Amino acid sequence: MSFLMFLNTDLLVATVRLSTPITLAALGATVCERAGVVNIAMEGIMIIGAFFAAVTAFYTGNPWLGLASGVLAGGIYSLIHAAAAISLHLDHVVSGAVLNILAFGITRYLMVLFFGHPGTSDAIPSFLGDYQFAVPLLSKIPVLGPVFFNQTPIIYISFILVIFLAWFLKHTRTGLHIRAAGEHPLALETIGVSVYKIKYLAVFISGLASGLAGAYLSIENNVSFTEGMTNGKGFIALAAMISGGWSAAGSFLSALFFGFADALQIRFQVFRIFHVPEELFIIFPYAATIIAVAGFVRRSRPPKADGVDFIIEKENE
Amino acid sequence: MTGNKTGTKVRSEREHMKKALDLISVLLLAAGAVYYLGGSFSGLAALSSGAALYLFNIYYFQGKEKTLSAVKKYLSRLIVPLIGIAAAVVSGAVIMLLTGYDPIESYTALFYGGFVKNWYVAVLNATPLIFTGLSIAFAFKAGLFNIGAEGQYYIGAMAGAWLGFKLELPPLIAIILVYAAGSFLASLWNFIPALLKVKTGAHEVITTMMFAHIARYLSPIFIRAFGGDPATSTHPYVTWELPESSWLLSFKSFIPDANYRLHTGILIAVAAAFFVSYVLENTKTGFEIKAVGFNKEAARVQGISVGKNIFIAMMFAGALAGMAGITQVLGLDHKLFENLQAGYGWNGISVALLASNNPVGVIFTSLLWGALDAGGQYMARTTHTPNSIVEIIKGIMLFLIVAKYIYIYAARLIKKKKGGGSV
Question: Is B210 touching A (CB cutoff 8 A)?
Answer without folding.
Answer: yes
